[in-house]
Amino acid sequence: MKLPIDLHFLRRPFDRRSPPGSAPGTATKPDDEVSSQITVTAYGPNEFVEQQIDDPEQIREYLGKHDVTWIHVHGLGDTAKLGSLAHMFELHPLVYEDILHPHQRAKAEEYGDYAFLVVRMVELEPRLDTRQISMVVGENYVLSIEEDCPHDRLEPIRLRLRKAVGRIRQLGADYLAYALMDSVIDHYFPVVETFGDRLDQIDDPLAAGYTTDLIPEIQRISSDLLTIRRNLLPHREAIRNMMSGAVPRFSDNTTVFLRDADDHTSQLLDAIDAYRQICSDMRDFHFALTSQRANEVTKTLTIIATVFIPLSFIAGVYGMNFENMPWQQMKDGYVYLWLLMTLVAFAFIGWFYARGWFKG
């Protein structure tokens, strides 16, 4: 029974871009990235403005005039715009390098006037992949820069801002950064659950003995889960780093909510570890089932060989060309010989049956 495989094994390769030995802070132009699109969302408890702009200098019209200004950049292809933003917000060269080289692990760092966060958004379609979202969190602004991505995973945050759902418009920029990070982490849940559903679909055919076509898929699922875990685990480290006070940009009020994000991350890691253990158990079950089948075949061949060994011996003895051999001159010697061979065969079969070799 062959099940369709809808989880792609191929993933985007690791690409550091900057040559080995380059000076720290060296930023190179990303390949195959779309042109950068800038969206500004400025808000307060009683105000909300959302505008897509082309010139980064227009951002100055919003900074300081609203409680919080969220500048979101989609795509890394326009280095001129990104360079203008780096100059406007006085980003450290290492921060600018990490933004343009989206192979960073999740982290949280303090740079004096702002905090720098990196989170990785998981995607399952068209293939398993993670996309980097970099965030610069200042006193009253959040600058988020996202790789080109086929899906807008931050739209739920925009909807909450537009409709003033919850307390997001009541709190500051640090809470917005938390909300963005929490949205990224929450999007891991449906992806991990997809792998759990696939394992459930595999379990029954595997138990029925259809293992040949399933083992490669189990291996792919285990490998994909390891990839997700490798990208998710640093988020917990970053969140706990923020909770410990190492990134003072986040207030005590926001730290309380970070505990929830930390709990979600732990739940995901536990689920991934459980699913990977299931994959390991399925592989062990396959090997045990294969070994059992081999033992059954070996046992059958052993029974057949053991039954025919004495018969072959008797046939070999009476096949020798000696003149004076028992039963050769008897009228019914041939019949007696067959009766002897049949008796020996049934004696061995009865002995094997008494020892339980025919059970199962």
From TrEMBL:
Signal peptide: none annotated. The lineage of its organism: Bacteria, Pseudomonadati, Planctomycetota, Planctomycetia, Pirellulales. It comes from the Bacteria. It comes from Blastopirellula marina. This is Magnesium transport protein CorA. Its main location: membrane. Residues 12-34 are annotated as: Disordered. CDD domains: TmCorA-like_1. Mediates influx of magnesium ions. Alternates between open and closed states. Activated by low cytoplasmic Mg(2+) levels. Inactive when cytoplasmic Mg(2+) levels are high.
